[in-house]
Amino acid sequence: MADWEIWVVIGVLCVATAATRSAFWMIGHRVTIPPRVQEMLRYAPACALAAIIGPDFLIDTQGEVQFTLANPKLLAGVAAFAFYLWRRNMLLTILFGMLVFTALRVLHVFGAAG
């Protein structure tokens, strides 16, 4: 690929990025979102977060699903979820989950897992 082609691609990508990101800012006041769609969009961040961390809890480094007690990520996630149900505090839940995960890894309770 020639240098000028690379610069053309970079320029087109810049224009495409600017156009897609500024579209809602430029025409957002003309678009009305129905209340039902707004209600559904409230759950989008939680769904995105679950889609990101869910596979990390279950899939090991070889790409296999680990539903065993030798999976410290899954155990720490379950412990953090139980802690959240008990305390209902997100910051403490994150700290608790990190402490459990770190303790499981440091203490080598589960051998080479992790």
The value of Rg in angstroms is 22 Å
Percent strand? under 5%
| Biggest sheet overview | none
Instruction: Outline the low-pLDDT stretches.
Output: none
**How far is it from the N-terminal to the C-terminal residue, by CA?**
42 Å
- Rough outline: flat
Structural class: mainly alpha
| Strand tally | 0
Count of separate DSSP helical elements: 5
**What sequence of helices (H) and strands (E) makes up the elements?**
HHHHH
The proportion of residues forming helix, as a percent range, comes to over 70%
Kindly report the average pLDDT value.
88
Salient structural properties:
114 residues, mainly alpha, 70% helix
At a glance:
The chain is mostly helical and 114 residues long. Helices cover 70% and strands 0% of the residues. It contains 5 helices and no strands.
Structural account:
It contains 5 helices and no strands. Helix 4 packs antiparallel against helix 5. The model has no long low-confidence stretch (mean pLDDT 88). With 114 residues, the protein is an all-alpha fold. 70% of the residues lie in helices and 0% in strands.
